[in-house]
Q: What sequence folds into this?
């Protein structure tokens, strides 16, 4: 493994505009595909991810954009893993494969969309490790490997809606969480004392990606921008 995450627990890398452009085009197609499957057409399709905001009622937004609808299909994953995307990522982390935590038969690459001004679109502070520990059957494929999360903003605004992390939190041993069964899996509930963490927004440009230890505390930020934040992520086994 090329990364050690000694101090901060994360590493910023430049993937390049061409790689991000290709990812954004792939996600845009997927966005349109899902909406058409639900019978939508017209303006919401034309605006695509760039113009998406309050187009759908909250309950419909939540229902449509569940994780299973935000996972790239096998053809898209195969294309990414056989092209420039894999080449660039492997130049950073070395040889890797993508986890299949959802058990769909191929690597799980999925995207998120967070509307401006909507706190309900933002996930809680957590460690990815907690999900693996709470769902042991998912952990079997990780034996003998190290897990690294890769998070890539595709549409974002600097200092307004990027990823939040606590530097060095992968080394903390004082964090306590409990489990709750939701959406078919055990999920961690972090009973947070806000004074016990120091979450900071990463400074990233278009073309950047962040690779981080799966014990690092992180979460998406509240979107204070003008556009929906769109990102894509995957867990690498190295």
A:
């Amino acid at each position: 493994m090329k990364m050690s995450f000694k101090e901060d627990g994360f590493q910023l890398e430049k993937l390049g505009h061409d790689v991000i452009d290709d990812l954004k085009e792939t996600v845009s197609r997927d966005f349109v595909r899902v909406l058409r499957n639900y019978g939508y057409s017209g303006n919401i399709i034309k605006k695509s991810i760039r113009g998406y905001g309050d187009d759908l009622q909250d309950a419909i937004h939540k229902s449509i954009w569940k994780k299973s609808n935000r996972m790239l299909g096998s053809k898209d994953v195969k294309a990414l893993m056989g092209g420039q995307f894999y080449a660039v990522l492997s130049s950073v982390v070395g040889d890797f494969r993508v986890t299949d935590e959802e058990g769909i038969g191929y690597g799980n690459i999925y995207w998120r969309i967070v509307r401006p001004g909507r706190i309900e679109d933002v996930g809680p502070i957590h460690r990815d490790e907690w999900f693996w520990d709470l769902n042991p059957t998912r952990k079997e494929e990780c034996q003998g490997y190290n897990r690294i999360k890769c998070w890539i903003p595709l549409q974002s605004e600097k200092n307004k809606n990027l990823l939040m992390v606590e530097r060095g939190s992968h080394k903390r041993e004082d964090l306590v969480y409990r489990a709750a069964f939701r959406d078919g899996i055990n999920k961690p509930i972090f009973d947070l004392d806000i004074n016990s963490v120091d979450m900071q927004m990463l400074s990233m440009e278009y073309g950047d990606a962040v690779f981080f230890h799966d014990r690092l505390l992180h979460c998406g930020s509240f979107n204070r921008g003008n556009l929906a934040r769109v990102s894509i992520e995957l867990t690498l086994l190295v």
In short: The two ends are 6 Å apart (CA to CA). The chain has one domain: 10-237. The longest strand covers residues 147-155. Residues 175 and 190 are 8 Å apart (CA to CA).
